[in-house]
């Protein structure tokens, strides 16, 4: 990896860690001051939309060979999250006012802060043990709460009829397709992370 690429990716990871720190802080602050999940979207929904949109660069990085990650995994995650913040959440008040929207943001935030902070330290060659542990163990819970909350938000948007009414048949069809696909693709994503964890843990034991 060239010095320019390394510097760029470090800056990119730092930016993402900061963006998701803001999302987490605003989400928790709003929740703790209002105790009302419906207050989360007005407070942080727009910021989250654009913070999440940066994920398109993750796909570009894989596509152009800047990082070695599964293209399919990155594509699936990028598409689902972008669709959630640009279509489902804005179109469905029932979904974005629910507790599942809040748990989705918290899960995303903690996962992304951990992931991108790990990338920053790894690029410098000095990732601390606690961060390595967090990167490869938090997903046991965060993947379940995150993906589960995403599915619940999609389901609420369909059940309420809001996504079809506001987005039309095409958007409704995409959401229904995602609802059906979730139980199929989620285990694959989860197993992928477990494989990465086993690989990393074996490497640490040998070291």
UniProtKB/TrEMBL annotation:
It comes from the Eukaryota. GO terms for cellular component: endoplasmic reticulum membrane. The chain crosses the membrane at residues 17-35, 55-79, 138-158, 170-191. The keyword Lipid metabolism applies. GO terms for molecular function: very-long-chain (3R)-3-hydroxyacyl-CoA dehydratase activity. It is found in: Endoplasmic reticulum membrane; Membrane. Pfam families: PTPLA. Keywords: Endoplasmic reticulum, Fatty acid biosynthesis, Fatty acid metabolism, Lipid biosynthesis, Lipid metabolism, Lyase, Membrane, Transmembrane, Transmembrane helix. The keyword Lipid biosynthesis applies. GO terms for biological process: fatty acid elongation; sphingolipid biosynthetic process; very long-chain fatty acid biosynthetic process. It is a multi-pass membrane protein. Its main location: endoplasmic reticulum. Pathway: Lipid metabolism; fatty acid biosynthesis. It catalyses: a very-long-chain (3R)-3-hydroxyacyl-CoA = a very-long-chain (2E)-enoyl-CoA + H2O. Its EC number is 4.2.1.134. InterPro entries: Tyr_Pase-like_PTPLA. Belongs to the very long-chain fatty acids dehydratase HACD family. PANTHER family: VERY-LONG-CHAIN (3R)-3-HYDROXYACYL-COA DEHYDRATASE (PTHR11035:SF3). Catalyzes the third of the four reactions of the long-chain fatty acids elongation cycle. This endoplasmic reticulum-bound enzymatic process, allows the addition of two carbons to the chain of long- and very long-chain fatty acids/VLCFAs per cycle. This enzyme catalyzes the dehydration of the 3-hydroxyacyl-CoA intermediate into trans-2,3-enoyl-CoA, within each cycle of fatty acid elongation. Thereby, it participates to the production of VLCFAs of different chain lengths that are involved in multiple biological processes as precursors of membrane lipids and lipid mediators. This is Very-long-chain (3R)-3-hydroxyacyl-CoA dehydratase. It comes from Terfezia boudieri ATCC MYA-4762. The lineage of its organism: Eukaryota, Fungi, Dikarya, Ascomycota, Pezizomycotina.
């Amino acid at each position: 990896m060239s010095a320019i690429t390394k510097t760029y990716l470090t800056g990119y990871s730092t930016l993402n860690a900061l963006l998701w720190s803001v999302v987490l802080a605003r989400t928790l602050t709003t929740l703790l001051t209002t105790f009302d999940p419906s207050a989360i979207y007005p407070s942080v929904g727009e910021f989250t939309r654009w913070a999440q949109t940066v994920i398109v660069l993750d796909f570009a990085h894989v596509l152009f060979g800047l990082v070695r990650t599964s293209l399919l995994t990155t594509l699936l995650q990028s598409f689902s999250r972008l669709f959630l913040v640009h279509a489902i959440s804005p179109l469905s008040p029932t979904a974005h006012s629910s507790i599942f929207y809040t748990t989705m943001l918290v899960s995303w935030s903690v996962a992304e802060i951990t992931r991108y902070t790990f990338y920053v330290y790894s690029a410098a060659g000095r990732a601390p043990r606690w961060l390595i542990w967090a990167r490869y163990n938090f997903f046991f819970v965060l993947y379940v709460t995150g993906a589960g909350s995403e599915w619940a938000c999609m389901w609420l948007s369909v059940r309420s009829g809001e996504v079809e009414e506001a987005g039309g048949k095409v958007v409704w069809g995409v959401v229904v397709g995602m609802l059906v696909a979730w139980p199929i693709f989620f285990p694959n994503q989860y197993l992928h992370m477990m494989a990465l964890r086993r690989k990393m843990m074996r490497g640490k034991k040998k070291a």
